[in-house]
Amino acid sequence: MALFKSFSALCAVLVLAGCADPKIVGLCPPYVAYSRQDQHMLLSELQAGKAAQVPQSQTYRFLRDYAKERAALQVICKGK
User: Fold this and answer.
1) Is residue 77 exposed (0-12), middle (13-18) or buried (19+ Cβ within 10 Å)?
2) Which of 23, 38, 71, 74 might form a disulfide with 34, Cβ 3.0–4.6 angstroms?
3) Phi, psi of 39 (to 5 degrees)
4) DSSP code, position 59
5) Cα 18 to chain centroid, rounded
6) Alpha-carbon distance values, 70 to 33, 47, 57 (Å)
7) Cβ proximity of 49 and 56 under 8 Å
8) Rg of the chain over CA atoms, in angstroms?
9) Phi, psi at residue 53, to the nearest 5°?
């Protein structure tokens, strides 16, 4: 009889545990949206540095890679 009560208690706990809502945490980082004005200001700054003969090959490479990463995250996270 004690075995039956233990088994019944275990079944009740398992059934009730199945009713709990799992906490789901998103894996996507927050997407920071830059306005067109911000993008144009950045472009102006980069072009000003280029006109002043400041080498910027690394800057352009980093920004290009960052843009690709942002685009991929936007697709993966569905634009959130």
Assistant:
1) middle
2) 38
3) -65, -40
4) H
5) 29
6) 10, 22, 20
7) yes
8) 27
9) 65, 30
**Residue 73 · residue 29 · CB < 8 Å:** yes
pLDDT, tens digit, for every residue of 13-34?
Answer: 666 666 666 666 667 777 677 7
From the number of C-beta atoms within 10 Å of its C-beta (0-12, 13-18, 19+), residue 73 rates as: middle
pLDDT tens column, 50-71: 777 777 677 777 888 888 888 8
Going from N- to C-terminal start, the domains of the chain cover 37-80
Residue type, 45: E
How far apart, in whole angstroms, are the C-alpha atoms of residue 57 and residue 68? 17
Distance separating alpha carbons of residues 58 and 46, to the nearest angstrom = 12
Contact predicate 31/73, CB 8 Å: yes
